[in-house]
Structures are given as C-alpha cells and as structure tokens.
Amino acid sequence: MVNDDYLIALAREHGVDYIVTGDKDLLEWSEQQPPVIAPAAVEDLLGE
Predict the structure, then answer these.
(1) Residues near 26 by Cβ (< 8 Å), separated by ≥ 6?
(2) 7-21, pLDDT tens digit by residue?
(3) Which phi and psi angles does 46 have, rounded to 5°?
(4) Residues contacting 32, CB < 8 A, separation 6+
C-alpha cells in the first residue's frame, strides 16, 4: 500500500467522495477513506 499512499493523501486533500481505480491493492482495502471503488461501480452510483 505504500506506493499508493500519495493517491490517498491527494484524494483526502481535495475532498473527493471516491477513489475510482482498478488497482487490486487499493480495492482490497475496505476501511479506506475516501472509499475506493472499481470503475464498474461508478455506473451504479450515478444511477442512484
């Protein structure tokens, strides 16, 4: 996860709602804030 720390810090700094990625390491980390979701999940969010 160390290599992805900068992405998480950037997302928090800019107040994003989600990190959208296909990166398996990030997707497996369920306790992450902001939440990490797969690109396929974006369609579900937009449909709400």
Answers:
(1) 1, 4, 7, 19, 32, 36
(2) 999 999 999 999 999
(3) -70, -25
(4) 8, 19, 26
